[in-house]
Write a structure and sequence with these properties.
single chain, alpha+beta, 8-stranded antiparallel β-sheet, 8 strands
Length: 232
């Protein structure tokens, strides 16, 4: 048997220990696999992260409608009438006069009362403001009522009540009255939809202004604006 030379054995040992070479194709395939896996994970994360905000944007009208319904159920209970003489806070009778209060609130939100003058001030009777300064049914009973100021006072309606005329009109305006004394026949004249709970002194100061023979203030006085609140 032929003997293998030591040098030949050494060369064979080195050949066995040399690591196998990885081809360029295998390296590219491996990197591509890793990239696709990472991209897939990122796309999945981004989809689930954005999904809640997409839902919110998909139902905007439903959310707003629900909020609006909550506001309708929780109407303001108080109105603050700001005048040049000061502020008058009135509690609104939402239960006993719902239709009138609804109309009043709607007009307030539209800014209807901003700058509205008190066109009649009758001492110990009423302060009258609104959209009908000309003679009419409301004006007629207001002026006639002055002659009844010496009649026995009724306990049904005290002073500092907020009301509007019962007369139906095609006009979309609003006649506003603040009583300054108990009125015997108030039931036949106006619909009471609130009462003054703060600022009675302001009401009394307004009724002291100088007026002409038709009870019209000689100097302009009226409502600057009205603020609606849930709490007094």
């Amino acid at each position: 048997m032929a003997r293998i030379k030591p040098q030949a054995l050494l060369m064979q040992s080195k050949k066995k220990k040399a690591p196998a070479r990885i081809s360029l194709t295998a390296i590219i395939a491996c990197n591509l696999t890793v990239f696709l896996a990472v991209f897939s994970l990122y796309a999945t994360y981004k989809y689930w992260y954005r999904r809640p905000s997409d839902k919110t944007e998909f139902y905007p009208n439903t959310f707003e409608d629900t909020e609006a319904l909550g506001e309708l159920k929780d109407l303001p209970s108080y109105a603050i009438l700001n005048t040049a003489k000061g502020s008058v806070t009135a509690e609104l009778y939402k239960d006993s006069s719902p239709e009138v209060v609804d109309k009043f609130l709607d007009l307030c939100q539209k800014g209807h009362f901003k700058g509205m003058p008190f066109h009649r001030v009758i001492k110990h009777y009423v302060i009258q403001g609104g959209d009908f300064p000309e003679l009419g049914a409301a004006e007629d009973w207001t002026l006639k009522g002055k002659s009844h100021s010496e009649l026995a006072k009724s306990s049904k309606h005290e002073a500092f009540m907020l009301g509007t005329t019962k007369a139906k009109s095609e006009n979309k305006g609003f006649e506003l009255f603040i009583t300054t004394a108990p009125i015997p026949d108030l039931n036949d004249k106006i619909v009471v939809f609130g009462r003054v709970i703060k600022g009675e002194d302001v009401v009394q100061e307004i009724e002291e202004v100088d007026t002409d023979e038709h009870y019209r203030p000689k100097s302009p006085i009226g409502i600057i604006d009205i603020i609606l609140k849930h709490e007094p």
